[in-house]
Amino acid sequence: MTQYSPFQSWRRGAVLLAFAVAVAGLAAAVWVYGYRQALDSLAERSAADLALASDRVSTQLQIYQELAVLMADHPVLNALDTEEGRRAAAQRLREVADKTAALDVFYADRSGQVMASAEGVAGASVATEEYFKRAMQGALGTGQAVLLNEGKRAYFYAAPTFAVSGGVLGALVVVADVEDVEQTWRGSLPAVFFTNRSGEVFISNRPELLFWRRGDALPGGDAEQGEPVAFVERRVGPHEIWQISGSAYLPRQALHLTVDLPVIALQGEILVDVAPARRIAALQAAALAGLCLAFGTLLFLATERRRTLARANAVLETRVAARTEALEVTNSQLRREVRERQEAEAALKRAQEDLVQAGKLSALGQMSAGISHELNQPLMAIQQYAENGAAFLERENPDRAADNLGRIASMADRMARIIKNLRAFARNESEPMGRVDLVQVIDAAVELTAARLEADQVTLDWTAPTGGTPVLAWGGEVRLTQVFVNLINNAADAMLGQEDRAIAIVLRAGPRLRVEVRDIGPGIKEPEKMFEPFYSTKAVGSAEGLGLGLSISYGLVQSFGGHIRGSNTEHGAVFTVELDPWSEEGAA
After folding, report:
1. Coil, strand, or helix at residue 566?
2. What is the pLDDT of residue 517?
3. pTM for the full predicted model
């Protein structure tokens, strides 16, 4: 056994202590770095979960918003000046509340007095409610409250009703049951809650968090329901971490994210357990510390055994070479995987473009017979007018010959316009976002589908805005034309099995441009699946389409920053395309 002097022993101990301190410091640095990296990744996933939960709440509440807007103009509300009219209105409102699961649907006049109600509370006053005051200003009013009689949380939508002169007559109020909104996503995500302007939790997938309010001045909190929940806030880089105690249903350390939801006047918040991030960071630090300790042990043993230094160096060099070779192999594999990923992304992009083009060609295939008729008819007319013109020239009647030549020119212009629309519709290119005249786009789609609609005896009602003023929107002209061709063809397909066939196209201006395509068909059988690729209601093996039209249209409208949705009406289905209006400031 090797003997050491006291000085050598002290120096050896100092070296070992310094090495241990260095390893501990490096492991701590790796832990901090790994923890922050893991928090960044966790924050991205949690933001997506929060956005999903927020979209669910907003979408479910929007159903009641649309109900309030639609019911505000119901004819039954025009006869509330008589007792019989009020009873009829209450009966109608009760039917609507039963079908939509609303807590209540009532109508109040300008003074705030409830004239008719689904729950029979006529005579009460809502004049002091903020949502009613907002409705009296001509806008959609919203509000939240806890109903005193039932103890239920409710969300209010108040839609104004207008007189012919333009004044506000009253408001139709829909009372949504917040607990019913929560049922679809309760417990399916990390702790998500929505606070109102006063900071009180109004909606949550964790019942213990309801009505909890965080203190403004001191860290910590108090709950009005359940066990007290105390917390301490701290920052880890850009992230806010809550240390929570007092709840068996919440993590002890959680990442806290927020998102503002001005549409429903709430703020969405999420608490995600950071324990996985801490474990990942601990594993990284432990692996590095183990590697460093292993290397230090090898170095110490090599120093202790000077007589075998040459052999130890050879072994070490062999290990280093092996590790270097492994790293080179790993790097080669990583480069190959990166290259394969890039090729896959390029193939996906090409497949998406081919899918869009396939949708165009499919629509053209369905319209081919009508297009052939549209081109054949003016060709036959041109031949007839040419023969008539030659005959008139032989008879020295130049005026009649000139009239026939003018008709030939008109027919040629018509054919050129059809061919121009077909070439623009069928070309396969990626057009940039820019200014598009919606009237011109709809006119092109109507012209492309005119022959098919005529062959199927479908009546089309489309009237451009008066004055000839263009309606400008953000988008791509060719791809928007494809969207409306798909919608018109789908509407025509839906009505093939019935005698009466009619399609109406309406263009509405506003903060967002809306184009509605309505039909009088059987409606949408499965609204939740209508935008899925390859979903079709046609018979299996049908040659009339692959079920890609609506899916392609959905993707195209989304790429323009717009939105497309479909719903059933009393007499068919309606598809609404929403687009952003074009402006000089937005273009700049």
Report:
1. strand
2. 94
3. 0.44
Same domain, 425 and 505: no
| Sign of the C-alpha dihedral computed for residues 334, 335, 337 and 341 taken in this order | positive
Exposure pattern of 193-216 as b/e (b: 16+ CB <10 Å)?
Answer: bbbbeeeebbbbbbebbbebebee
Of 115, 112, 163, whose CA–CA distance to 133 is shortest? 112
* DSSP per-residue letters across 274-288: -HHHHHHHHHHHHHH
At 172, is the pLDDT very low, low, confident or very high (cuts 50, 70, 90)? very high
SS3 387: helix
What secondary structure letter does DSSP report for 542? -
How far is residue 269's CA from residue 247's CA, in Å, rounded to a whole number? 17
Q: Which two tokens stand for residue 486?
A: 């798909």
| pLDDT score for 541 | 40
Residues 335-367: tens digit of each pLDDT: 888 888 888 777 766 666 666 656 556 655 555
Residue 506 confidence (pLDDT): 93
* Residue 154 Cα to chain centre, angstroms: 26
Domain end residue (candidates: 139, 156, 181): 181
Query: At a CB cut-off of 8 Å and minimum separation 6, what does 387 contact?
Result: none
Q: Which domain holds residue 404?
A: 340-430
CATH at 382:
1.10.287
Whether 81 has a pLDDT exceeding 60, the answer reads yes
